[in-house]
């Protein structure tokens, strides 16, 4: 039996997750990643509800993730004096279990690198489909033919732009920008977080791992990013300009940002696609349904990888049928989860003082004892709204 050979673009979460499922069933998998090494930075990611847990358990990752969990507790909205105006339970911001995205990337890499070929520092430059497969050209490697190609290369997918056309209109901007980074723990937080907001700008700071470090998220209104705007220096300048004159201890946080080495800068956007596949090429994870922030991107990538692998293995030699079944199962679930990306900017940085007042008042009510069960359903309903197929 000839083993199918699949090219997966992207060594983040979705790509290695798919590689794990396929390689253990004998498929040849090559993962190509533009970065020169595994990307181990990024914000914390969380899993919530039985759907996420079932996939992690089937991959044998539930206990390993718990060993690396952040243990983040409550997060508080604070006013300019530092007074708590509302407190959010750990379930809302951290789910059932949370860990650093980089730790999860490392876990997936370690569990696949012996069975999967990884090529770092390279990227597809040309994809040409034939009757026998997809001829792929690379920046550095020689051209090669694959049976199938999977674009799991993120929100601004190179595979998507080359196969599906220009991304104009495919990325919907939601009016906010975000900068994330690691900072010294200048606020002295311990297993908790704080969120300070003013109209059109807000900062969230959490400390859940080492006592001397914290993760910061600066959210502010702004236009989509141009191609030359994603550098660390531009990110620092954007935050400095956006938070000039802001109250509370934001000046201290902006100053600490100058020494940060792991800056992430992006506009808050989400992907809108009429279909997930074209011929022998299929998109997975953020490339297909991603949102910059708040769209449950990491657990959705792993659920999506499980379903895509399951359909490919259940429909050997019939990729068109497998891709169609994959999309019909995932699209309603992914679309529902993706909706969080359109609201997350306004959550951290309401545009008006009235909006800020309403947010604080609403969450103050929802987190009271009489409404705690309703609130729990509210923050988990999207994640739990899926029946996980059994491909055993």
TrEMBL record:
Residues 5-317 form the FAD-binding domain. GO terms for molecular function: FAD binding. Transmembrane segments: none annotated. SUPFAM superfamilies: FAD/NAD(P)-binding domain. InterPro entries: FAD-bd (IPR002938), FAD/NAD-bd_sf (IPR036188), FAD_aromatic-hydroxylase (IPR051704). Coiled coil: none annotated. This is FAD-dependent oxidoreductase.
């Amino acid at each position: 039996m000839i083993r199918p050979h699949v090219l997966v673009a992207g060594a983040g979460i979705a790509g290695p997750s798919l590689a794990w499922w396929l390689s253990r069933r004998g498929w040849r998998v090559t993962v190509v990643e533009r970065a020169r090494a595994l990307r181990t930075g990024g914000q914390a990611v969380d899993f919530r509800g039985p759907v996420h847990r079932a996939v992690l358990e089937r991959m044998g990752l539930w206990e390993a993730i718990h060993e690396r969990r952040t243990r983040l507790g409550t997060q508080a909205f604070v006013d300019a004096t530092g007074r708590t105006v509302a407190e959010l339970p750990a379930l809302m911001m951290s789910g059932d279990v949370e860990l650093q995205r980089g730790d999860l990337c490392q876990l997936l890499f370690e569990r696949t690198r012996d069975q999967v070929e990884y090529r770092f520092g390279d990227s597809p430059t040309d994809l040409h489909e034939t009757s026998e497969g997809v001829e792929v050209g690379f920046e550095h490697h020689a051209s090669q033919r694959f049976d199938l190609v999977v674009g799991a290369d993120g929100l601004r997918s190179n595979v998507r732009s080359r196969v599906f056309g220009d991304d104009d209109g495919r990325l919907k901007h939601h009016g906010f920008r975000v900068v994330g980074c690691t900072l010294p723990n200048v606020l002295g937080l311990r297993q908790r977080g704080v969120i300070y907001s003013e109209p059109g700008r807000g900062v969230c700071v959490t400390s859940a791992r080492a006592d001397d470090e914290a993760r910061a998220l600066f959210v502010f209104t702004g236009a989509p990013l141009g191609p030359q705007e994603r550098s660390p220096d531009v990110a620092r300048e954007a935050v400095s300009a956006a938070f000039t004159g802001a109250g509370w201890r934001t000046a201290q946080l902006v100053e600490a940002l100058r020494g940060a080495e792991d800056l992430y800068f992006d506009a808050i956007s989400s992907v809108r696609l009429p279909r997930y596949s074209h011929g022998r090429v299929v998109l997975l994870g953020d490339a297909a349904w991603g949102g910059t922030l708040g769209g449950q991107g990491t657990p959705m990538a792993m659920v999506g990888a499980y379903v895509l692998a399951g359909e490919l293995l259940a429909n050997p030699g019939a990729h068109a049928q497998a891709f169609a079944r994959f999309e019909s199962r995932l699209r309603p679930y992914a679309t529902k989860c993706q909706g969080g990306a359109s609201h997350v900017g306004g959550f951290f940085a309401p545009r008006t003082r009235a909006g800020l007042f309403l947010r604080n008042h609403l969450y103050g009510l929802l987190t009271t004892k009489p409404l705690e069960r309703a609130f729990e359903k509210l923050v988990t309903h999207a994640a739990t709204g899926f029946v996980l197929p059994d491909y055993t």
